[in-house]
Amino acid sequence: MYRALWNFITRYTDNSHAVSVFLPLMIVGWTVAGILAGLAVCAITGADIMQSLANLVCAGGYAGLILGLFGGCLFLFRIDV
Predict the structure, then answer these.
(1) pLDDT 10s digits, 11-22
(2) Is 72 within 8 Å of 2 (Cβ atoms)?
(3) What is the model's pTM?
(4) Euclidean distance between CA atoms 53 and 59, whole angstroms
(5) For the chain, which residues score pLDDT lower than 50?
(6) Domain limits of the chain?
(7) pLDDT of residue 33
(8) d(Cα 42, Cα 74) in Å, to the nearest integer?
């Protein structure tokens, strides 16, 4: 997934700007994925979404930070931009 997104971004931008587009997209993408996964779990278990909203946003933020930012940085470090 990281490689496909990187190839898509570098197809339309140069490498100096690609990093500035890649990392925010990774952060936002993983944050949205974390929140949607939490909403799915709430829907399956029947939990009240409004009471779990703070936990959902926190889980989405951690997913964006750990998987998006740190994962994206490790990917960029590995491909040696």
Answers:
(1) 999 888 999 999
(2) yes
(3) 0.85
(4) 10
(5) none
(6) 2-7+19-79
(7) 94
(8) 31
Range 26-30 contact pairs with CB under 8 angstroms and sequence separation of 24 or more: 26/2, 26/67, 26/68, 26/69, 26/71, 26/72, 27/64, 27/65, 27/68, 27/69, 27/72, 28/64, 28/68, 29/64, 29/68, 30/63, 30/64, 30/67, 30/68, 30/71
Q: Which two tokens stand for residue 63?
A: 């997913």
CA 4 to chain centre: 14
Burial of 60 (0-12, 13-18, 19+ CB in 10 A): buried
- Residues 69, 73, 79, 81, CA torsion sign: positive
